[in-house]
Amino acid sequence: MYSVSRVSSNIFYTLLSMLSMIILWQFMSMIINKSYLPSFTDVIEKLCENLLSGVLIKNSIISLTRILVAMLISLILGFSTGILIIWFRAGFVNNFIKMIVFVTYPIPHVALLPILFYFFDIEWSKIILILIISFYPITLSIIEWSSRFPRELSELIYIMGGNKLDLFKYVIFPSSLPGILTGVRISFNTAYAVIFIAESLVGSNGLGYLIYYYWQILDFKSMYSAIMMLSILGLSTYLVLVYLERKLLKWLY
């Protein structure tokens, strides 16, 4: 487990890095002195103003709902695909599913958004785009890490009378869990990037739409406040996932 001194050290360096970025931002805004780079204090003032008016809270809930729905479906599909690959570790099913994943992974999935509009309504097309892009880090992590389990333990499971389910439950899954959770974190981070693209292209709500709208009308303070709100949501999600990871992987921390 993390010692108190290590936790304190992490907090100190986190605060120090954030303070450094704020000072750099404030300094650069003074040097450049252009409307497209307002000062940090002006952005914070606008952030508070937009929070109190409810516009940021309303659109944050909309964006977060889209991300969570997409991630929930993505996790179910990713884990299901991963379990099939693990269960059929050799043979046609394993190779067939792997090839589908590997062949479709390099496709620029954001380019699929116009096509998704024809098959689904505008709302679901955004969710499905996030789902598709978030699916791959989870699935690829499972494929990669499920092959790293100690082979001697699998032999021990069978010697003790265990079966394939016991092998998965006691060996493959625990050894794969660190990589799987890393894939989940990467998927969530990617989802926050994709939500901007999905909401800015088509739509009338969400933080991505707000950022694009404020940019169009040259309201840079509000634009930065919306970017900051999206960043806060992303950072909060990341910290929650790190906390859950340390709870689930106590033997590593």
Q: What is this structure's SSE topology?
A:
Elements: H1 4-32, H2 40-53, H3 55-87, H4 92-104, H5 113-119, H6 122-145, H7 151-159, H8 164-201, H9 207-216, H10 220-248
Helix pairs in contact: 2-10, 3-4, 3-6, 3-8, 5-6, 6-8, 7-8, 8-9, 8-10, 9-10
Q: Give the helices and strands as they follow along the chain.
A: HHHHHHHHHH
Q: Please state the CA-atom Rg, rounded to the nearest Å.
A: 22 Å
Bin the strand percentage: under 5%
The counted number of beta strands is: 0
N-to-C terminal Cα separation, in Å? 5 Å
The CATH superfamily name of the largest domain is MetI-like
How many structurally independent domains? 2
Label the structural class. mainly alpha
For this structure, the CATH topology of the largest domain is MetI-like fold
Uncertain ranges: none
